[in-house]
Design brief:
Shape: globular
Strand content: 25-35%
Radius of gyration: 17 Å
Length: 214
């Protein structure tokens, strides 16, 4: 057991059309803070919309969390405000480590979440930030946030305490998977280690494909 953290914001969003630099898209990335208790189910937060279901959501990526500490880093680096939910996260958590091990768990009252993968920057994120170069900045910063699968449902709200339970013998970090997304050459032993960890199904398919090419 590790020291407790705290949810600073719970964020949900509806399908919304966004435009920037001639690009227009309908997305669920526009998350905004909500008050009161919100139910967490095996499909994610109730009332939240996931438009791009090819790359987001699903059994292993129901919840996306971002660290309040990383928000502070972005604010200082960019010299502007970054309100909670701007990165499209469901939970903004004060004290959340940036580099969890896959399999690490967060306990929020009766809710149990398990880390499965990193967020890889996409077109909607750059459009949301109104900066076509933000994807590269996000990659270089390596402050990626973490996707979680829901192991036990319940309710969460801003102010709730969060406890991190580290996986025994954790061997694959979320940062490992973030870097894997950009690598052009791979080591078979390292990929096998990825497959032995409780990584998200989408990432597992990518790792298996990379391994098959070796």
């Amino acid at each position: 057991m590790q020291e407790r953290m705290r949810i600073s914001s719970v964020n949900i969003g509806a399908a919304e059309k966004i435009d920037h630099a001639g690009k227009s898209m309908t997305t669920g990335i526009c998350k905004r803070p909500v008050a009161g208790a919100i139910r967490v189910t095996e499909q994610g937060l109730e009332g939240d919309s996931i438009v791009d279901q090819k790359h987001h959501g699903g059994d292993d990526q129901e919840i996306y969390a971002y660290s309040q500490d990383d928000y502070c880093w972005w604010k200082e680096a960019a010299g502007r405000e970054f309100p909670a939910g701007l990165f499209g996260e469901n939970l903004t958590i004060d004290g959340l480590p940036s580099n969890l091990f896959n399999g690490d768990r967060l306990l929020v009252c009766e809710v149990v979440l398990e880390a499965t993968s990193a967020r890889i920057p996409c077109g909607p994120l750059a459009t949301r930030m109104e900066d076509p170069g933000f994807g590269l900045a996000f990659r270089q910063a390596a402050r990626h946030g973490t996707y979680f699968r829901v192991l036990n449902s319940g309710t969460v709200q801003a102010g709730d305490s969060v406890t991190l339970v580290e996986t025994a013998g954790g061997a694959v970090t979320v940062l490992d998977l973030f870097r894997f997304a950009y690598e052009t050459s791979h080591d078979a032993e390292r990929l096998q280690r990825f497959l032995a960890a409780p990584i998200a199904a989408r990432v597992r398919s990518q790792v298996e494909a990379a391994l098959a090419k070796i």
